Amino acid sequence: MARVPLLQLSDISLTFGGDPVFDDLFLVIQPGDRVALVGRNGSGKSTLLKVMGGLVEPDRGEVVPGPGVNVGYMEQDPDMSGFATLGDFAIHGLEPSDLYKVERAGEGLKFDPARPVETASGGERRRAALARLMAEAPDLMLLDEPTNHLDIEAIAWLESELKSTRAGFVLISHDRAFLRELTRATLWIDRGSVKRQEKGFDAFEAWRDSTWEEEDTARHKLNRKIKAEARWAVEGISARRKRNMGRVRALQDLRAERASQIKRQGAAAMALDAGPKSGRKVLEAVGISKSYGGKVILEPFSLKVQRGDRIAFVGPNGVGKTTLLKILIGEVAPDTGTVNMGTNLELAVFDQARSKLDPNASLWDSLTSDPDMRVSGKADQVMVRGTPKHVVGYLKEFLFDEAQARAPVRSLSGGEKARLLLARIMARQSNVLVLDEPTNDLDVETLDLLQDLLGQYDGTVLLVSHDRDFLDRVAVTTIAMEGDGKATVYAGGWSDYQTQRGPREVEERTDPERKSATVAPKPAKAPKTGLSFTEKHRLEALPAEIERLEAEMVKLQELLSDPDLYSREPVKFRKATEALTARQAKLDAAEEEWLTLEEKAEA
Per the confidence metrics, is the pTM higher than 0.85? Predict the structure, then answer.
């Protein structure tokens, strides 16, 4: 017996007055479907979810829920006008017998039902909307970035709830670990086309890369055919009085086919320049502590950060991660203890509140008003890692089009605001990156690029994140803040911390002196045998890094082989020589690291 679909979309077209967002879209969501909805920022994921939820009317086509099917949509920015508290909003429309579900969801998602709406943050409002949806228990849930503003504990609760639900759901999220755990099918929005694969998100990247490879092969064959036909058209004129007009028309059709193909959006041209090296000691905190209003945020804690460390700070929302980070970089004074900064430090800070972005300023002004980016006497240029660039040209490198340059920041999506802030940070040289929740709202491709850049970055990284996959890929040391002011240092990323935390907690309960820690040489903390998750990832990445360095050295050697280069362009000769020396040092270090990890893996 055929199943009755939860939702059907038939012949959907939507333009918003410009190029089609979707055209000729047919889509069916079946009972029990657990679908990841993926695509680049701005591709139309949220719009499609709103069409499915009946919040946006298409220009053409029908959206038909199944008979008796309830469709629930989690609002990104819920309208709470008319409600006094978050709890009033969350229980609105529920039967009295279901009110306990809101209380249960509130505990899992960590929102206070008594919080007045007028003083609630955007994150608290979203958590209330999510609690309301979970309590309503619709047949189909449409979830747009439900993990934003949730800490890892709340994400784990939501993950468990969605695993056990019998409802179908379509899910947009930047959290790859969340998507991998929950989804069994994938909808991919790419240039107005929606493709479906009956596999979860774990298989998405292989599917995407295979699709693009087939597309590139087909485009290459089309270009070759056009060249051959064009050559025939030109060369055949002298050999024939009358051309074969059918073939000429076929050539025109081929060219029209190529012109109609929509070019893939490339990755953002992000880059990091560590600039001059910092001293070996980046900072040393000794006995620092902090309390607010009688609440202990941090007990006396000591930490030494050395050049090249990649340190992640994890823990529940409100536990004090950002406060500790600000104490370490000198933005907040500790109640006790001292923080001694190293020499030659150049910090770049990405703050989770995006406070450095004026919502009423244009993208253009957001860049040109930055003192570190301003080019004297040139209002249309910005300084990017020592080189002047046109404002629009630099914005295009971060996937903004020319029309957006004069648009206000408030018109941007969350992912676009994150890219704009990254553009500001990456324009300057830095040797210490401070990243407070940088992954929120970024698409998969931009996340991949960011983590690759951090892997190649010569400086030091201090990172706060709730993205477990990102933590595993980037962090080599994790500082866990689990409440009551205690901060504990673990080797490795999130998975390594989870593996180690049980024995460590017992050890600390029996040894109260272990309340401070030092980020000392990492091998002292690593397991004696085998590789940690982070080390395995590093071992897999090193061959490509070594190959890249070797290729760059070959190009530099070819440049320096010109006997007249020194006399003709002495500055270029000097820079090429310095670059070759630097890459040789990196290559030696990478080869040594590979040998060390390979020996450890064999052990």
Answer: no
